[in-house]
């Protein structure tokens, strides 16, 4: 069975990890690249790498990001050289960006070098960048438009986000690999990632939403897991972003953002009371424990998603 | 007093470090870039960096190369990604190559970014790449022409060197900074570096030898320290290279290579008997202990060189 997961960073990585634990399905993860950025002349792809490190089993569980046992010797030198280091890259992580950047400069597509990195770390599932072209998320704060990582890391998500836009939509298009994965999909799952800046950029790639709709047209079910539980984001600024952008800060608010292209919405048990309102949008609803606290929790949620009717 | 030192890697770095310890002279090191190479898409400049790390006081004395306390976490990941890692770059060292490469890609000259790195490490003396253009040392072995680092690091100097050539001499030229340093020099010293592949490439930059001769024309003395002591290179393959390239394997052999553009030759005490033969070449001779075993040895040799008549 061909399973396609749309994913951002940490929430997407956890669900991908849970899905990977179940045999009998071929997992392809289409990952957000809107967070990608250049630092020290190197292309950094945070969401791709978070998913990759997690599927490789080398993610740093203690920190919730980066690589287990990571060190920062290079960052100390970059400091001495006067480089901006508010996005502090670990030594092991730097190797990823170095290899990726060298391959891109040599003419490889992002998708191709991403797969080479995955193979190097013996990652079985395919992790596909949503596009090979740069498509960059920017947010407007009280101080104007800024790059996503400036907001997310440097300013630690402190400013209110008043608007979101994606730079590069004129030239970005889904890769052949993304289109093929969606065309071959038996099941599409949307990870409990930030709907606005993790799943939003994926849908902003011109043609990608159509490809999902075509899959639905041939009977494929799209199941989305809410990243908002009890009115709060488990991690990250999704709840505050929903509020400042004028959406309801609840799983229902997320369901409304997805209603046009999703068939089934998965609510956490604490949000069971929202089921009728979500069903009223025309979506099927499944209620379960969606918190992936440990490996068992990841595998349990993944197993439940895989057991839902196609 | 403006002092210019022509230098390769380790021997040059030691003498530069000794000279730096003496106040009252402004030191400019013109450093060999023939060993430079690209690895993982990054430009590595071994001789420049060895001199820089040594003058910054962060050189690894135990290993004789690299940075004190260096770690290799990134190299372990590069291995996993299937990168060639016979030239194993440390985490701190990688930061240097990353910053340099990013600046070069942004359009900075090698000389400018090199100085920025030096300033980051609070290096007082100016270390000038001999040229901003690529000029690469290649050696011919029984297996044909290979890049210098292939011979030096990967093959650990095992093959006989049958010929040396410099790729890029058609386009390389001395930088304005190098020409200005030589034009302003009150004293020029040649470090006890490999005459063939450390000092040789510097002289191979078209126009650089002329600039030295012009300095001599206005009365500047060029003093070279022999890197061959008692018929052996203290470090590296200089002795074997002299032999396979048909030169006498002795300080006299080195003096013969330098006789056209050097005024004074410094012999180690163990080679005192060679003084008459070197003098017969038309060079002044100074005999002293040239082994720079520790900081005191470096400072002693440097002080003695500075005390020689201009």
Q: Your description of this structure?
A:
2 copies of one chain form a homodimer. Chain A is built from 13 helices and 14 strands. A 7-stranded parallel beta sheet of chain A has the order 5-2-1-9-10-13-14, sandwiched between helices. In chain A, strands 7-6-8 form a 3-stranded antiparallel beta sheet. Chain A has a two-stranded antiparallel ribbon with strand order 3-4. In chain A, helix 1 (10-20) crosses helix 13 (295-307), helix 4 (91-105) packs antiparallel against helix 5 (110-120) and helix 7 runs parallel beside helix 9. Chain A has a single domain (2-307), classed as CofD-like domains (Rossmann fold), CATH 3.40.50. By secondary structure, chain A is an alpha/beta fold. At the A-B interface, helix 3, helix 4 and helix 5 of A face helix 3, helix 4 and helix 5 of B.
At CATH level 3, the topology of chain A is Rossmann fold
Distance between the termini of chain A: 11 Å
Widest β-sheet, arrangement of strands of chain A: 5-2-1-9-10-13-14
Give me the strand/helix succession of chain A.
Answer: EHEEEHHHHEEEHEHEHHEEEHHEHEH
Portion of residues in beta strands of chain A equals: 15-25%
The radius of gyration over CA of chain A amounts to 19 Å
Overall geometry of chain A? globular
Helix content of chain A: 40-55%
* pLDDT averaged residue by residue of chain A: 96
Biggest interface, chains and residues, is: A-B, 32 and 33 residues
Number of helices of chain A: 13
Tell me about the biggest sheet of chain A? Answer: 7 strands, parallel
